[in-house]
């Protein structure tokens, strides 16, 4: 067994750069192909000790492959992986999964059907007097006390998920990997289970990498989000950075609700219905990303024509058309009344992100 | 997958780097593959050593005639078995036939009657000096139509091998998506057209697989064709072996037989067509039941008649001969020893085959991309294509040969050793253990094993604590299958049994080939009953699964 990293003293998920010592994970240039299709195409990722990192990506973006490479179930074609400063894959080195000290919770949980809850959790623990104590501890931590003798098929979905988590946490892994942990749960359960999971992970203090395709999940739980696109990290940052300061048009479009206005630019300026905005100096065309909640209804501002509206309860969405024909959506609170209203004036809450666009890239 | 498909130079996955299977799997797998390669390679080498003699043995008109007769035998038996099994499978799965579930299980039991016992009973009942002739003689029936030759042999073989087809067809029929048939009916096709155009094409893979089993059984059958006096390659090969050690000639004949076996497998691959999977699993309702109407009771009668012929009559005849033998003071001693010999041989063969199947099944189910997986898998299936007689002869030749080379080193223990017999059984029936083990491995999510290794267990610990316990049912099914077929096996038993070792099959054969039916009755009855036991277990397991 490799030496376990100290797991104490990570009360909150740490901010990168503040933690001394080697990072929990350092992946460089990971490439992995399956039958000529590149699942990973030069993935770089650093995760600090104690952090909760979420890899967010559409299906096929390579996120599960990344997890399996870190766990050691696959070998990279190219690139290298270091865990806590120790090279585990790449450049001739390969450490078998059972020697990495990495815990994994599978999407289908992979609970051993021939073992009870207790025996599942005890599976990764060495024989000895401490074993039963540790099992009880982890069952308590995951709120499974009293279910220890159950067969796994007698558990509810949420209980199965927590059993898988307990089993992975029991040997005190230095790194915990979660593959789409909520996808097999009833949607009505997800928000609650997500909260429970975050609390369990906070108390266990384990460095965690979670993979998901659900942006709400990613943004709500992560310390940092790595947005994966076609086998590469497109942007890596806190949920706030990813959402409010998207690094690329793709991130801006993919995460959250957004309208993209494609407008001509010249001399470092792009002319928008809301006034001129600074643009990259060389750009002749720009994409301006406007989120519905950033558009405000005001007494004065850019005039627009109301085309329709949908009422959702917690808010409502107003569809408007600007003088130039551009269509926008405006998110407003549930109290406002729009019956009979056909013209509105719009202002922006903040300056929207602007990206240079080559003319050929217009979609 | 939305992953980009980049036109990369097709880089072959290197052997290392994408994971060698762990040594605990790879080394035993290599050993199994190497052992399975011995018979085919040995036969090729032998035939190649004196090509003239080999060519002489093959290129005679009599060999060509034998090959044709063998092919005709396989074709006839398969056709008749299909004609029995297809309607039977449909009646017992998709109609309101009275008692169809029980009948479906009973109809599989004739598989417990080995063809040589069936042939012996056919001769004793319908032969020229048989019971029926005795009964009819006072009525002025001088001579019954002869039981010997092609029609008798084909009928007997088909009547006791159709369960192979039944067992593959029944699950296929039960698994059909009823929506496809309903769609066809909705599009205006009648019941018969729907069966022909929708159901039958979906049954093609099962028909091909079951038909192949019957055909391979037919070409490798020795007992029935010998008793019913129909010359096939297998019978000729046996005669050639008994009449002296003509290695090259026998090897060449064996290669012709292997050629026929491979042709049959090729036909199966072609007949199976592209692999079709049943269209839906979840949410699919059980297949609809067709009312038979006024045909309900006639159909029931037909199925009963079949069971009477294939199940009741053999048992009754065995009982009759047993009673007659006892009345005539036939000695019963020696049967206890034969039962023990049979159980020992079949039990050991089941254990060895199951143990050999595990590494190969793991390679096949978990390491498909590994370069040696397919060759090992292919070699492990050689027992499927090689007739028992051929494997036995190859092992005899190889054992004698290795002893003539190694001289005193082996001290002659290999030939005439129980180990060689068990090895032959295990090699012959390894594919059965392999199929069942592999199927159960494929049902275990690989993430179970990954979870276990992620929790710090070494590969051999994962195998012992997760993989094998979860695959235990498949392994047990495989063992039951090997046990059953080993009990019945005749040619390899006759050739490889050490002196003094006389399992039931050999005892039955010894008596039956001399027409001492009364003496054969007790071991034959015991053999059928002992084979029916694992068969019944298997049918029950299959129903649970």
Task: Describe what this molecule looks like in 3D.
The complex is a heterodimer of chains A (363) and B (545). Chain A has helices spanning 63-71, 117-122, 129-141, 157-169, 187-204, 215-221, 239-244, 249-254, and strands at residues 25-34, 37-47, 52-56, 78-83, 86-90, 93-94, 102-105, 175-179, 207-212, 224-229, 232-237, 259-266, 269-272, 275-278, 285-290, 295-298, 302-311, 316-322, 327-332, 343-348, 354-356. Chain A has 363 residues and is an alpha+beta fold. Chain A has a six-stranded mixed sheet with strand order 7-8-9-3-10-11, with helices on both faces. Chain A has a five-stranded antiparallel sheet with strand order 2-1-4-5-6, covered by helices on one side. Chain B has helices at 23-49, 51-58, 61-94, 100-106, 115-126, 131-136, 150-175, 178-186, 191-220, 223-227, 233-242, 247-272, 296-327, 335-366, 373-380, 382-385, 388-406, 418-442, 446-454, 459-470, 472-488, 491-496, 504-512, 517-544. With 545 residues, chain B is an all-alpha fold. Classes of the chains: A alpha+beta (363), B mainly alpha (545). Chain A binds chain B through residues 1, 33, 36-39, 41, 58-62, 71-73, 75, 77, 96-104, 106-108, 110, 112-114, 123-124, 164, 167-168, 171, 230-231, and chain B through 1-8, 10-11, 17-19, 445, 447-448, 450-458, 465-466, 469-470.
Number of strands of chain B: 0
Task: Please report the number of helical segments of chain B.
Answer: 24
Q: What's the average pLDDT of chain B?
A: 84
The outline of chain A comes out as globular
Largest sheet of chain A: 6 strands, mixed
| Average pLDDT over all residues of chain A | 87
List the uncertain runs of chain B.
1-18, 276-283
Low-confidence stretches of chain A: 1-17
Distance between the termini of chain B: 33 Å
- How would you write the strand order of the largest sheet of chain A? 7-8-9-3-10-11
Number of helices of chain A: 8
Sequence of secondary-structure elements of chain B: HHHHHHHHHHHHHHHHHHHHHHHH
* Computed Rg of chain A: 24 Å
Strand content range of chain A: 25-35%
Tell me about the largest β-sheet of chain B.
none
What class, by secondary structure content of chain A? alpha+beta
User: What is the H/E string of chain A?
Assistant: EEEHEEEEHHHEHEHEEHHEEEEEEEEEE
Q: What structural class should be given to the helix and strand makeup of chain B?
A: mainly alpha
